[in-house]
Design a protein that fits this description.
It contains 9 helices and 4 strands. It is of the alpha+beta class.
Length: 256
């Protein structure tokens, strides 16, 4: 079967392209206080978002992505009959699904960093780049879209970057795997791995079962979109290393 031709100019870069390496990133969360302001924000951001087709045109390996939560769609005034067509997991949100996700006890939602997991999170802007200078240029374009826009409130920000040696806090190499997706012409990090069906990542295309998952309605709300999870995790490095030491008999076994 011929692979579908993806509409790359209508798919956000972050859905299909690998994160640059090394990288710096900024995440900003917003609350929509006025519906009209929220719609104006979406109109402005449509000119800022980087598509798969155009990300490399600047040669800077920099992208800006925008995501909406279920509560954000409600704040924009999307009718309830349309909201009901989104996946149940998306509608419920992570806090409501905490027990199913294993977020219990110390990891339960009441202990999450605010406002993560709350109904106040409506829009997420993500900027990623290889270099700080290019990241700031991308964020400045985004700032022009939301600055001095009454009815839009920035409620949380996280700046981050890869650690030396491109290893995460526990010491493991980060970002080592990126799958290829049919129709994207973006290679996998594993040349021996066959491309995945586009529908595993992008709405509106057949998946590995040969089925096309249901699209939110009207179709324009979902086609070429994707569901994304936004989580911030606390890594207890000292406790992790102590566990390794207590459960191994030698430095070699500890490393293994």
């Amino acid at each position: 079967m011929t692979a579908p031709q993806l509409e790359l100019d209508d798919i956000q870069s972050g859905v299909l392209r690998p994160r640059p390496t090394p990288y710096v990133a900024t995440y900003v969360l917003f609350r929509i206080d006025r519906r009209e302001a929220g719609r104006e924000l979406m109109r402005r951001l449509s000119g800022v978002v980087t598509s798969v087709a155009h990300r490399e045109s600047s040669g800077r390996d920099t992208s800006v992505s925008v995501a909406l939560t279920y509560q954000g769609l409600k704040a924009l005034g999307v009718p309830q009959n349309s909201l009901n067509t989104f996946s149940p997991q998306f509608q419920q949100g992570m806090a409501a699904r905490a027990t199913k996700l294993g977020d219990v006890g110390e990891s339960s939602p009441e202990n999450w960093e605010r406002p993560l997991g709350s109904p106040d999170v409506h829009v997420v802007i993500t900027a990623v780049s290889k270099e700080t200078e290019h990241l700031e240029c991308a964020m400045e374009r985004a700032r022009k879209a939301y600055a001095e826009l009454p009815g839009i409130t920035a409620i949380w920000r996280q700046d981050c970057h890869v650690r030396p040696g491109e290893r995460e806090a526990f010491g493991f190499r980060d970002g080592i795997g990126h799958p290829a997706v049919e129709g994207s012409d973006i290679p996998s990090t594993n040349p021996n791995e066959r491309p995945f069906k586009a529908g595993e990542f992008v709405l509106g295309y057949p998946d590995e079962m040969g089925e096309t998952p249901a699209l939110p309605q009207p179709e324009i709300l979902g086609r070429n979109g994707s569901y994304v999870v936004f989580r911030k995790l606390h890594q207890r490095v000292a406790a992790f290393r102590q566990y390794l030491k207590e459960n191994s008999t030698s430095p070699e076994a500890e490393e293994l």
